[in-house]
Structure formats: structure tokens, C-alpha cells
Design goal:
heterodimer, A: about 110 residues, mainly alpha, Helix Hairpins, elongated, B: about 240 residues
């Protein structure tokens, strides 16, 4: 059982990639990409977990108390916000594509431009 | 490539990746038993050294604040990209105020104030308790977005437009760099705390890193609001052609 959280991260990554490859809609594709990216949060937080550790906040807690790794949490927290903006950028691109090509199916767009 | 052919190609590739992931994951220390020396060290030294009780934010805005600056500029660049992509030629559309219920308007309007206050509180106590610029900034932006949901587009667009938000976003991004340059100007490495560590467990902890935290909060809030403004302008607003 001790590798289950890592397996969850791997599964989310694979499912997301499968979605990206087989997607028929750019909006769906962007969401799948975000799912793939989310697997890194699960992996980072799983790696940083310390059995029995508290949150890495030492307000009213004695220093030296066992706590989980703060570095992976710092990485995840900034990345979550940034990933939302990047998702929005991809969606804006998808809007632009639909405006110019009249479709959001990646296969049709490729066909139209030869 | 047809959809079927694509699946035939991708399945072996994904199986290969799954095998590689399984191999590498079983090589990791078991769940809960990893001991990252950097994390353990930070948990020990951040509070005595930097007087911050939230070690996650001590990492984000102090020990690794240079990385966070990079992240902030990814945010900045992404939002600029969105603004450019969604720029419309057709600027003279009229939006309709669609919220008719008096209860929703007044109750929702009140919630905006409370939400913004909670967001600012989350930013302010970033070095003390869970919170910080990124989380608080998103909370503030979401609260302001309630103006659209509860009151209407017209009320929202007095705040949610580029003229108001661009300078605020610039202030957030520029402020971050300015705090870094202040350290350089006083002969210290970029983004070093120049104001002393302050008192642990109070709002005055973190010294100049507190300004870094606030800059990030302002930047994130403004960036999110710009995002909402651009998308709302492009889509949620009905074009009132010939409507009375």
C-alpha cells in the first residue's frame, strides 16, 4: 500500500495524456492537459508526506515537531495558480481557432490547411 | 491520422510510460518515509532565522523568492497573451444588467465586501498561518467576480476592465522586482530581506519579504480579474443588436 499515492499520480498522468491524444475538442484537450499537470501535484505532495507529520506551520507549535516537507508544497501552490492562467491562455487560443477555422476539432483544423 | 490509428499508436506508448513510471515509483522511498534534507532543514531553521511561522511561505517568498518571481512572470505573460488574443474590434456593444432579484443584488453585493476582506486577511497573515499572496489573491479576485454574478455586468465592468486592472497588475509585478532591487541597492543579494526579520507570529514578521508577499497577492488578484474581464467581455456579455 505504501506506493498507492504514487500510483494514483501515475494514473492521473496517463489518463490525461490519453485524453490529449484522443481528444476531438480543443476545450476538452486543454482540460486533459490540466489533468495531466495535476498529477505532478499529487506526486509532489505524496513525496513530501512524512508519516505522523503535521503541517509545516509553527504558530503555536513547538519547533522541531515532525512536519511534512514545505518545499514541495511551495512548488505546488505557485504552480496551481500559474496553471490556471496557462489553461486560460490555451482556451483563448481555442476561441481564436474556432473564430478563424469555424471548428474546435483538432483533426478538422489540420485537414483544412492541408 | 484517423482516431482509431491514433489510439493504436498511443496505447503502446502509454503502456511503456506506465512501465517506466511503475519502475521509478517503486524506487522511491515508501509513502510517508521520504526525508528530504532541504525540507527538514527549512522546518528547523525558518522560524528562528526568518521569524516566519508558515514555512511554506518562507520558502515561497524568501528562501526561493527568485523562483517565485519567475512564476509570477509566467502569470504576467500568460495574461498579456490572453488580453491580446481576446482583443475585440467591436467595442460599442451594450451589456444588459441581468440580475433582477433585489435579494440577490443586495445579499450578493454584501458578500463581495466580505469576500475581499477574507482574501486580504489570507494575504496579510501569509507568514503566520496558512495563506499568502497566491491564495489570498485568488480569493480577492473571486470575491470581486461576484459583482458580475450577483449584481450585473455593468457594476462589474466599472472595476473589471483593462484601464483599472492593467496598472494594478503592473504594480504587483513591478513591486516584486522593486523589493529585490532595494536589496541590491543596499549591497545585499537580490531579494534579500532588508528590513530585519520582525517578530515571529505577528503581522510584522518577514521584513521586506512581506512586501514580496503583498506584491504577489496584488499581481495574482489583478491577473485573475483581467482574465475574468477578458473572457466575460468576449462571451458572457450578450451583444444587444437591435434589442430595445
Amino acid at each position: 500500500m505504501s506506493f498507492l499515492p504514487y500510483a494514483v499520480a501515475g494514473w492521473i498522468c496517463l489518463v490525461g495524456l490519453y485524453g490529449v491524444v484522443t481528444s476531438r475538442n480543443l476545450v476538452h484537450l486543454a482540460v486533459c492537459l490540466t489533468v495531466t499537470q495535476s498529477s505532478t501535484y499529487v506526486l509532489l505532495l505524496a513525496v513530501g508526506y512524512v508519516r505522523g507529520g503535521g503541517p509545516p506551520i509553527f504558530k503555536g507549535v513547538k519547533l522541531g515537531t515532525s512536519a511534512v516537507d514545505p518545499v514541495v508544497q511551495a512548488l505546488s501552490l505557485t504552480d496551481i495558480v500559474v496553471s490556471v492562467t496557462v489553461l486560460a491562455l490555451i482556451l483563448a487560443l481555442a476561441l481564436d481557432v474556432s473564430r478563424h477555422a469555424g471548428t474546435v476539432d483538432p483533426a478538422e483544423i489540420a485537414g483544412m490547411h492541408g | 491520422m484517423s482516431r482509431r490509428a491514433r489510439i493504436v499508436v498511443v496505447l503502446p506508448a502509454l503502456a511503456g510510460l506506465a512501465a517506466l513510471l511503475a519502475w521509478s515509483f517503486t524506487g522511491l522511498p515508501g509513502f510517508g518515509s521520504f526525508r528530504g534534507p532541504y525540507g527538514i532543514l527549512l522546518n528547523r531553521v525558518a522560524t528562528p532565522e526568518r521569524h516566519m511561522t508558515n514555512v511554506v511561505n518562507a520558502t515561497t517568498y524568501d528562501y526561493r523568492s527568485f523562483d517565485t518571481m519567475g512564476e509570477e512572470f509566467i502569470l504576467f505573460a500568460a495574461v498579456i497573451g490572453i488580453v491580446l488574443l481576446l482583443r475585440e474590434d467591436d467595442r460599442d456593444r451594450r451589456a444588459e444588467d441581468r440580475v433582477r432579484s433585489e435579494m440577490v443584488r443586495s445579499g450578493g453585493g454584501l458578500t463581495v465586501g466580505i469576500g475581499v476582506l477574507v482574501g486580504l486577511w489570507v494575504v496579510a497573515f501569509g507568514f503566520v498561518t496558512p495563506g499568502g499572496g497566491f491564495q489570498g489573491g485568488v480569493a480577492v479576485a473571486s470575491a470581486v467576480l461576484l459583482l458580475f454574478a450577483a449584481v450585473g455586468y455593468r457594476a462589474w465592468s466599472t472595476l473589471g476592465n483593462e484601464t483599472v486592472l492593467d496598472p494594478i497588475e503592473g504594480l504587483g509585478a513591478g513591486g516584486y522586482v522593486a523589493v529585490g532591487l532595494a536589496a541590491l541597492a543596499s549591497g545585499l543579494p537580490f531579494l534579500t530581506n532588508v528590513l530585519g526579520p520582525g517578530i515571529a507570529g505577528t503581522l510584522w514578521s518577514g521584513g521586506s519579504a512581506a512586501f514580496v508577499n503583498w506584491s504577489a497577492g496584488i499581481e495574482v488578484a489583478a491577473a485573475m480579474l483581467l482574465l475574468y474581464a477578458e473572457f466575460l467581455e468576449a462571451h458572457a456579455v450578450p451583444v444587444m443588436r437591435g434589442a430595445s
